[in-house]
Amino acid sequence: MPQPDVSSLVLILLVSSLAAITSRLHHRLVLPSIVVEIALGILIGPDVFDFAETDPYIEFLSTIGLVFLFFFAGLEVIERKVPRATLFRGTEGWAISIAVALAVGVALEGAGVEAEWWLLGVALATTALGTLVPIVSDSGLLPTPLGRAVLGTGVAGEFWPIVVISVFLTGVYGAGAEILLLIGFGCIVALAATTALRARPTGVVRVLQETVHTTGQAAVRLSIFVLAALVLLARDVGFDFVLGAFAAGLVVGLALETPEGAVVRMRLEGIGFGFLIPIYFVTTGMDFDLDSLLTTRGLVLAAIFLALLLVVRGASSLLWLRDLGRRETAALAFFGATGLPLIVATVDIGTDRGAIDSQVGASLIGAGMCSVLFFPLVATALAGSRRAAPAAVAEAEFREY
Description:
Helices cover about 75% and strands about 0% of the residues. By secondary structure, it is an all-alpha fold.
């Protein structure tokens, strides 16, 4: 059995720490740390300086990081408490986006782009809610109608792509059986969520409360157990593990709606965002096909994908035109077109299953990185920044992904 490459792991941890620091060196220029992590991963990877490489142990940690990424996406949905009407309109908008995106995917595949049409469609119809929330909050827009529209658009742009990715990237039993299994899996998740809300034995609750600030950390351990159990269940019934991770986030998010929940969530974020998720994004950079992106075709594809992100998600923003007006609707289009984490995950999973060519995947990720860097800046300029309250600023500085 090969020995773990400890030197590469240490370098990855160093890079993840540097990314967190360099992304906030200047208060006027705050970069999403995910972009810095991928960029530094490219630098230390085999395509540039070749300082580090991945091995099975690092890949395992990276996979757990991806699991936590989708887990926190589920937590985000619960924590934001988006009104039902807003969620419904966001879902309507995503239906428009996915219809446009799938048509675009068919056209691109027909034009010779080496990727399955539905995978292109799903990747183009994603929104990075976790990346947007601190940006929108820091600009003071979160409590406004535009902020609520961003939440509705972002929740739909994370939830529905995860469901589609899980079903279509597996395809073990056929479409009909997959849908039935998905319904059954949903019933199990609903049962788990109901149990988390109602079944609170006094003795267990007391232990959970007493260990919040001790080495016991029972609530954290139970949360991670729920995550592992639903990931295992999703895999065993034939779905991709991302669905189980997202469902676990929903269940744990409901269970954490208690006075001690914020502390438990902070502990979980320390594990996820402090350790595992950065490993996933740094190794994504290390495995990134930079040579393919820097070809003429790769750069052209990246530019096309960047424009298509705006077209696809911009189409859904039209549903908010009457409420927001033209300027803020345009801002919503740019906010909604910001997508990187789910694009990275979609490309990663699709590459493993032979559903997308490495050059096309590199171009998609490159477009996603540009969207995170530039689209929120354009959106904020269009909407006009409104100074946030100190508490909102503090939350924005803590929540980055």
